[in-house]
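User: Modeling request: complex.
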Amino acid sequence: GAGVSQSPRYKVAKRGQDVALRCDPISGHVSLFWYQQALGQGPEFLTYFQNEAQLDKSGLPSDRFFAERPEGSVSTLKIQRTQQEDSAVYLCASSPGRRSEKLFFGSGTQLSVL
Amino acid sequence: SQQGEEDPQALSIQEGENATMNCSYKTSINNLQWYRQNSGRGLVHLILIRSNEREKHSGRLRVTLDTSKKSSSLLITASRAADTASYFCATDDNQGGKLIFGQGTELSVKP
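Assistant: Request completed. Predicted assembly structure:
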């Protein structure tokens, strides 16, 4: 079956531009997670949904970051007025249940802000 | 912020040798998981061990958990060149919500 799909695979943005990153989780998966991964580092938690409810957004670095999952399936991570420090790989993951057990990850979106 | 810390940061071994990676964490947990990441790819779940378990096996993988020391180890036996990847431990926040990852161990297995 299809895994977690993220698009675009690569995104280059000029500083100050807004970007939107899409995540298609595995069909039927309840929980969806967004992580930010800098080169050579572990993934850093950004935010987490159960169905359409955003239960934890404590990891979002600033109010320029916004995530939504309006119908409990596809999710979008939006970054407004991008800065160079936003350059990273953004990973999406989903899991079938309500707990963070056995996450299935997409291949990520590599964002470069010039 | 990271919950777990892995050591070593990098490990280079020959094919056929065993590889051991360690993870320490800070707060109480429900479970601890290990993931693998090949370069340029997403993470792949390897194994989950619950807080009331001390050891778990899956194929060539052996995981131990010591909750009194807040540490875990991942052993890969009879390593292969295809095991070359970064390995991360991850712990939950004891409420079943977010999963917090360590910094990872970069394993290189030379043929």
